[in-house]
Write a structure and sequence with these properties.
alpha/beta, 2 domains, 19 helices, 13% strand, globular
C-alpha cells in the first residue's frame, strides 16, 4: 500500500511538473556542513524521484559558506541556484533585488504555519524571501551526571554567575573533562554570534542610538573578561579554534560539562548512535545577569533563490519539498521525531509526537524569548539579537571576531582586543557614512 501511494504521489508530482512547463534540471545548492543539512542530502533521491530534478551539492564550513555565497550573489556570479542563508542576509539582499520572492509557493505549502519569529526575520515588507529549513535559538546543554556529582542543580533559567560556578566545579582536566565549551573560532557567525548575544545579557551593545561604537564601554570589558577568564579556567585547550562542529564533537565525546550553543544541536547530543553521553543530557535557557535579556540568539538556516538563476521554477520546487510538512513527516518516519528539523513550523510544536521529545519545549521557549527588535538593555538603532542588521556588519564583525579570538588564545590582552575593535569599527562606520 505504501509503495502504491508513493508511486501515485510521484506520478502526480511529475505530471504537475510537466503541466507547469518545468523540465528536469540540475540544481546547484550551496549549504552549510551542519548535521541537518547533511541529513537532507541523503533524502534528495526522494525529490529527484518526484520531480526529475537532480541536485549538485556544494557543502561548506559555516564561515566559508557565508563568504562564497556573499561574493557570488553580490557579483551576480550565478554559481548557485539555491543558497543557504539566514536572517541577517535575507532582508538586506532582498532590498538589493538579489533574491527571488517566495510568493510562488502554493497554498498547500502553508506559509502561515511558519513560526512568526522565523517568517518575520526572513521577510522584507511582509514578503518571504527565504524559507526556513530549520530555526534555532541557543540554550544550555549540560551533563546531568556531572552536575549532580558537583553537588549542584541546574535551574531552568540560570544566571551567568551559576553557570560559571558550575563550570569550574565540573572541570577535571586530568580526565579531559571541561566544565564549559563555548565558541572561540573567529567569524561574525561563529564567536561573534555567541559573544554578541552574551553581551546583551551583560548590558553591552554594538552601537548607541547615534551609531557610535561601544567597545570602549565598561559593559563590553565585563563581557569579554568574563568569557576569557571562564574559558581559561574551565574550557578545553585550543578553545579559540572551536566553532559549532568542534564543540559538538567534544560534547558527544563526553568532554564538556556544559555547552551553550544552537538549540538544533539537541538532537545530536541526545542521539545514542553519535553521542557517548546521550542518556545524561539536560537543557536550560541561556543564562542572564538579571538585567533582562538572556544570552540566546535567533537564527534560521534558510533556502533562498538568487535572482537571475535560469532555474527558478525548479528551485522553487526544491524549496517547497525541503521545507514542507511532508519532509518533516518523512524524516520522522525514518529516523524518529527527535531528528526532524526543528524551529520552523508551528504545527511541529503542536504535534503530540514532537511534544514528547525532551528538548522540544525548551527550544520553543528559547526561540520565543529572543526579541530582535529589543535585543539589549539600553536602546539601539539596529534590529538583530546576535547581529546588527546593516550591510557593514558582516565585514566589521569578522574583523572584531579575529581580535576577540586572539585575546582568547592569549595573543593579546582583552583591553588590546577591545581597543582594536573600537578603532576598526569607528573607521568602518565613518567610511560607510554613518
Amino acid at each position: 500500500m505504501y509503495l502504491r501511494n508513493a508511486l501515485r504521489a510521484a506520478t502526480a508530482l511529475t505530471l504537475a511538473t510537466a503541466a507547469t512547463g518545468v523540465f528536469a534540471e540540475t540544481l546547484t545548492i550551496a549549504t552549510v556542513n551542519n548535521g541537518d543539512m547533511i541529513r537532507m542530502q541523503s533524502y534528495t533521491d526522494d525529490f529527484t524521484a518526484k520531480t526529475g530534478h537532480e541536485i549538485e551539492w556544494v557543502t561548506l564550513e559555516e564561515n566559508v559558506l557565508r563568504q562564497r555565497v556573499t561574493t557570488d550573489i553580490s557579483a551576480h556570479g550565478g554559481q548557485f541556484d539555491i543558497m543557504t542563508i539566514g536572517m541577517y542576509e535575507t532582508p538586506i539582499w532582498a532590498a538589493n533585488g538579489w533574491l527571488v520572492s517566495l510568493d510562488g509557493l502554493p497554498a498547500e505549502y502553508d506559509i502561515d504555519d511558519i513560526l512568526p519569529a522565523m517568517r518575520n526575520g526572513l521577510s522584507l515588507d511582509g514578503t518571504l524571501y527565504a524559507a526556513p529549513f530549520y530555526g534555532e535559538s541557543s540554550m544550555i546543554m549540560y551533563r546531568t551526571d556531572l552536575m549532580e556529582a558537583a553537588g549542584l542543580e541546574m535551574p531552568s533559567a540560570p544566571s551567568w554567575e551559576f553557570v560559571a560556578e558550575a563550570a569550574r566545579a565540573m572541570t577535571d582536566r586530568e580526565n579531559e573533562i571541561y566544565g564549559i565549551c563555548l565558541r572561540g573560532k573567529a567569524g561574525w557567525g561563529e564567536n561573534m554570534a555567541f559573544l554578541t548575544a552574551t553581551s546583551n545579557a551583560f548590558g553591552a551593545r554594538w552601537f548607541d542610538e547615534d551609531w557610535t561604537p561601544q567597545f570602549d564601554s565598561e559593559e563590553w570589558a565585563t563581557t569579554l573578561n568574563f568569557y576569557v577568564d571562564l574559558l581559561n579556567d574551565a574550557g578545553p585547550p585550543g578553545a579559540s579554534n572551536n566553532g559549532f562542529n568542534e564543540n559538538l564533537s567534544l560534547f558527544q565525546q563526553g568532554k564538556c560539562g556544559m555547552w551553550i550553543d544552537a538549540t538544533v544541536a539537541a538532537s545530536f547530543v541526545t542521539n545514542p548512535d553519535d553521542s557517548t553521553v546521550a542518556d545524561s543530557v539536560g537543557f536550560a535557557l541561556a543564562p542572564d545577569t538579571g538585567l533582562g535579556p538572556r544570552s540566546n540568539w535567533l537564527w534560521a538556516w534558510a533556502l533562498a533563490i538568487p535572482a537571475g538563476t535560469q532555474k527558478e521554477a525548479a528551485a522553487m520546487e526544491f524549496i517547497q519539498w525541503a521545507t514542507s510538512k511532508d519532509y518533516i513527516e518523512m524524516v520522522a518516519a525514518n529516523e524518529g521525531w527527535a531528528n526532524v528539523p526543528p524551529g520552523a513550523r508551528t504545527s511541529l510544536y503542536e504535534n503530540p509526537n514532537y511534544q514528547a521529545v525532551p528538548f522540544a519545549q525548551m527550544t520553543l521557549e528559547s526561540i520565543l524569548s529572543a526579541d530582535p527588535n529589543n535585543p539589549t538593555v539600553d536602546p539601539v538603532p539596529y534590529v538583530g539579537v546576535q547581529f546588527a542588521a546593516i550591510p557593514e556588519f558582516a565585514g566589521i564583525a569578522t574583523e572584531v571576531g579575529q581580535e576577540f579570538s586572539a585575546a582568547l588564545a592569549g595573543q593579546q590582552t582583552v583591553e588590546e582586543a577591545l581597543a582594536k575593535a573600537q578603532a576598526l569599527t569607528i573607521d568602518a562606520m565613518e567610511a560607510a557614512g554613518y
